[in-house]
């Protein structure tokens, strides 16, 4: 308290308090990148670049730790381009963070970098691979497949826990079973192939629009993942609970639970200091300053944003089956180009 001014600190709802113990606090440290991906939601449509400064990131991780976060997600742009990465990771582990999940394209790996990464307690890496060489190079730049494959092998040689992040558009979907089998053979030791449904972003070239999955494609994707899981391949679909609903309706075995993109405890601080719930969402909840994480997590806008939907879903005949499979709100509008009828409804209607 200063003078007569009273600072009111809202108590954190227990639902949020419990969630953040398990949730990643996501930080986009830079939007600069060593790749030039045509489909990237971070870079598309903008020629400006942003970097967070060291003191801001230190403040974010301190505040995050104080309010209960124990897991960090560091992303970009390309986080290995950001000069303070190792200092921040060291600080986070000393503070008491239990794990750090780092997204990278691996282009800047050398043995020194990999030794440093290996020495970070609780570090898991993802490297992005978009499919066989022709598909990968089409979307991530000429000759990038070779660099990516080398990076994957280097990380595995250093025994760093590694996930392959594979964005699925129509091109990869057409070869997915073959690709998954090939990737596990070529890179034995990867922990998982994490598939990510391609989403629409501003400023995309037409060829990316044409890659978005239609409702029928999405159903095929679920069938393929289910079969791959039955055959013992560790494959999941990131933050896409609609897959579990489809699997349930088709009576397919479905092994991986897939939380919603928007969920309690989720926060991302972007390189321009804006704060959003998820990395791919654009709706800013404010600009970072000390104390802001707590204020946002206890704000009405945030609490309303992560609530179960009771408008669109209430008038949808699929609501009961969705809730049973853990889907609490409609698909995000950026799943394809049509916004009038939610993507999830069109997918589920196609099964009737
Ligand atoms: C934005 S990148 C940043 C980290 C790093 N530079 C990399 O290449 O992985 C993080 C992940 O987001 C994925 N991503 C980017 N744009 C996407 C989109 N439009 N739809 C789905 N995933 C996307 C990337 O493929 C990558 O796996």
Characterize this entry briefly.
This protein is of the alpha/beta class.
Keywords, separated by commas or semicolons:
352 residues; alpha/beta; 9-stranded mixed sheet; 9 strands; 12% strand; globular
The value of Rg in angstroms is 20 Å
Superfamily at the CATH H level? Aldolase class I
Q: Name the structural class.
A: alpha/beta
The major sheet is characterized as: 9 strands, mixed
Please identify, by name, the CATH architecture: Alpha-Beta Barrel
Reading off the top of the CATH hierarchy, the class is best stated as: Alpha Beta
Strand line-up across the major sheet: 7-6-5-4-3-2-1-8-9
Helix content: 25-40%
* CATH topology label: TIM Barrel
Beginning-to-end CA distance, first to last residue:
61 Å
Q: How large is the count of helical segments?
A: 15
| Average pLDDT number | 94
Please characterize this protein's 3D structure:
Helices cover 38% and strands 12% of the residues. It has 352 residues and is α/β, with parallel strands linked by helices. The protein has a single domain, classed as Aldolase class I (TIM Barrel), CATH 3.20.20. Strands 7-6-5-4-3-2-1-8-9 form a nine-stranded mixed sheet. Helix 10 packs across helix 11 (242-249) and helix 10 (215-230) crosses helix 15 (343-349). The longest helix is centred in the middle third of the chain and has 16 residues, at 215-230. The protein is globular and about 55 Å long. The model has no long low-confidence stretch (mean pLDDT 94). The structure holds S-adenosylmethionine (SAM).
């Amino acid at each position: 308290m200063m003078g007569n001014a009273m600072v009111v600190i809202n108590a954190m709802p227990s639902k949020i308090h419990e969630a953040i113990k398990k949730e990643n606090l996501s930080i986009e440290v830079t939007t600069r990148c060593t790749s030039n991906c045509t489909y990237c939601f971070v870079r598309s449509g903008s020629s400006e670049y942003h970097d967070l400064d060291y003191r801001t990131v230190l403040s974010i991780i301190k505040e995050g730790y104080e309010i209960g976060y124990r897991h960090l997600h560091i992303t970009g742009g390309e986080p290995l381009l950001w000069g303070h990465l190792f200092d921040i990771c060291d600080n986070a582990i000393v503070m008491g963070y239990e794990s750090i999940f780092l997204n990278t394209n691996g282009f800047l790996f050398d043995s020194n970098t990999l030794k440093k990464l290996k020495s970070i307690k609780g570090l898991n890496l993802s490297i992005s691979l978009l499919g066989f060489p022709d598909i990968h190079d089409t979307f991530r730049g000429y000759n990038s497949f070779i660099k990516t494959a080398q990076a994957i092998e280097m990380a595995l040689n250093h025994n760093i826990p590694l996930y392959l992040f594979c964005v699925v558009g129509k091109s990869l979907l057409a070869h997915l079973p073959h690709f998954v089998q090939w990737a596990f053979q070529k890179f034995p030791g990867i922990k998982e192939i994490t598939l990510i449904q391609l989403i629409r972003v501003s400023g995309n070239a037409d060829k990316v629009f044409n890659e978005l999955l239609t409702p029928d494609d999405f159903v095929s994707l679920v069938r393929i993942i289910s079969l791959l899981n039955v055959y013992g391949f560790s494959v999941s679909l990131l933050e896409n609970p609609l897959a579990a609903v489809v699997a349930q309706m088709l009576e397919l075995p479905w092994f991986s639970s897939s939380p919603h993109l928007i969920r309690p405890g989720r926060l991302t601080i972007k390189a321009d200091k804006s704060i959003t719930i998820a990395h791919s969402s654009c709706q800013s909840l404010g600009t970072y300053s000390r104390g802001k994480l707590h204020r946002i997590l206890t704000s009405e806008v945030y609490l309303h944003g992560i609530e179960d939907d009771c408008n669109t879903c209430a008038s949808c005949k699929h609501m009961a089956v969705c809730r049973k499979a853990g889907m609490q709100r409609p698909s995000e509008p950026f799943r394809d180009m049509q916004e009038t009828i939610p993507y999830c409804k069109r997918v589920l209607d196609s099964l009737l």
